[in-house]
Amino acid sequence: MVLITGYYYLCDAGYPNVEGFLGPYRGQRYHLQEWRGARNTPTNAKEYFNMKYYLARNVIECAFDVLKGRWAILRGKSYYHLQVQCHTILACFLLRNLINREMIYYDDVDDVDEGDSAYAMTTATEDIHYIETTNEWSQWCDELAESMFIDWQLRNT
């Protein structure tokens, strides 16, 4: 079994399976409407992975929509270094959680931030121009999908 550590981005099928990027299987059912109805349950590991993948990605996209509605710094292209961008997103999520937990009676908490955010220019050393699929990452994805599908089958038998 391949051991993958660290974090990765859930991306669409246009990205290759490579370290740091995890996309759905191509040629398998993927969109939520394809899973409606009792007869449309996944029939193999790749379909099951795509179903769970889509649900997770949908939750993430909704969470970012909420954050973008509140903090203007997240609405446009960022020119900060990658680590600063990650810390900014984490800070926004933490602030959102704090507001939700501590300020339960504040009605205007979801008002859109109308302020303009300033961006710091950096060099383009972190830009990604081309990525090629790696066997190790694809194998890890296959093993993950198979493990998820087996667990699901055991829970549903």
From TrEMBL:
Provide the Gene Ontology terms for cellular component. nucleus
Q: What is its main location?
A: nucleus
Record GO terms (molecular function): hydrolase activity; metal ion binding; nuclease activity
DDE Tnp4 domain location, by residue? Answer: 5-97
Q: Which InterPro entries match?
A: HARBI1-like, HARBI1_dom
- Localization annotation: Nucleus
**Record key words, sorted:** Hydrolase, Metal-binding, Nuclease, Nucleus
Q: Look up the record and name the cofactor or cofactors this protein needs.
A: a divalent metal cation
What's the superkingdom here?
Eukaryota
Q: To which protein family does this belong?
A: Belongs to the HARBI1 family.
Protein name per Swiss-Prot or TrEMBL: Uncharacterized protein LOC107991461
Which source organism does the UniProt entry give?
A: Cucumis melo
